[in-house]
Design goal:
about 50% helix; alpha/beta
């Protein structure tokens, strides 16, 4: 029997949820004095939710419940409510609304973040919505990246534009947009180089791609998606900072939310940067990357169900 999306989310956020529940264990039942509130705040930061969200929970507890006892489950329910507020502001599927077509989606991220696989999963997601999709292998720096994306394109049955290793990425993107326009493609997903060790080189290449796109369609690229590996925790936040400066990120996709992931970083990223989070990846299958429900994810993270019971 296939695993449901909800069960995959449970597995994907299990480490974060277990850590949060464990860190809050024993803090309920006592009067919520300053010392206890400090412990709650520290427990949430240790669960990777970030200092901003931890501070909001602390303030909420202090304002409403400072004078009376509160069980641990009550604290977790407050955590769920505050996390949901944060995620609701950023949970936003990608809308394919560009005119004229195609909608150009630049995908960026460091090597090893799951970028190429995520592009294939995004293409699959758009295909499920009856959009025509084309891929462009714009990471010409690595032959392996070109080959991997070509394999994925063949597997899911979409056209791909490729060039030689070391070729001009901007020229390849020009060709891809021309071809996508000619055949009426809805979405063109462009892979890009992920080398951060030379930020200037990467910035120059992305700027050149943007100039080329602008000559063909002033609105392109319509989306600049940063793929983040949830297993890297705090480092994922550092990547947002760098890529915002280098590439003008418009949205995030969080991958590798499996049992080893530090999924709380999803909340920390949402709170700190407010960028749309278009989809999350919780497994290796093609349909394991989807938009998410903030209510469902916040409850899973806090370890509570819809009836307000603990898990």
């Amino acid at each position: 029997m296939s695993t449901s999306w909800h069960d995959k989310l449970l597995g994907g956020f299990r480490r974060t949820s277990d850590r949060l529940v464990g860190n809050l264990a024993g803090l309920g039942g006592a009067r919520l004095d300053e010392a206890t509130l400090d412990e709650v705040e520290e427990a949430l930061i240790a669960s990777d939710l970030g200092p901003e969200t931890a501070g909001r929970v602390r303030q909420r507890l202090a304002e409403g419940l400072f004078e009376r006892n509160m069980e641990e489950l009550g604290i977790r329910l407050v955590v769920a409510e505050e996390v949901e507020k944060v995620l609701r502001q950023v949970a936003r599927p990608i809308g394919i609304d560009a005119f004229p077509r195609p909608q150009v989606v630049l995908v960026i991220g460091v090597n090893g973040s799951g970028k190429t696989t995520t592009i294939a999963k995004l293409a699959h997601l758009f295909l499920e919505q009856d959009y025509q999709v084309m891929l462009a292998a714009g990471d010409t720096f690595r032959a392996a990246a070109i080959g991997q994306l070509k394999t994925w394109a063949e597997r899911i049955g979409v056209p791909i534009v490729t060039g030689p290793e070391g070729g001009d990425a901007a020229g390849l993107v020009w060709d891809a947009v021309k071809q996508a326009t000619a055949i009426g493609t809805d979405v063109l997903i462009v892979d890009t180089a992920g080398r951060l060790q030379n930020k200037r080189e990467l910035m120059d290449e992305l700027a050149k791609i943007r100039r080329v796109l602008g000559r063909l369609n002033p609105a392109a690229p319509h989306d600049v998606l940063l793929v983040l590996d949830a297993t890297t925790g705090q480092n994922a936040l550092n990547q947002i900072e760098v890529f915002k400066e280098v590439a003008g990120v418009t949205g995030l996709v969080m991958t590798k939310l499996d049992g080893t992931a530090r999924g709380g970083v999803l909340v920390a990223a949402a709170e700190r940067y407010g960028l749309p989070i278009h989809a999350i990846g919780v497994g290796e299958q093609m349909d394991d990357l989807r938009p998410f429900d903030p209510h469902e994810v916040s409850r899973i993270i806090a370890g509570v169900d819809d009836a307000g019971r603990g898990r």
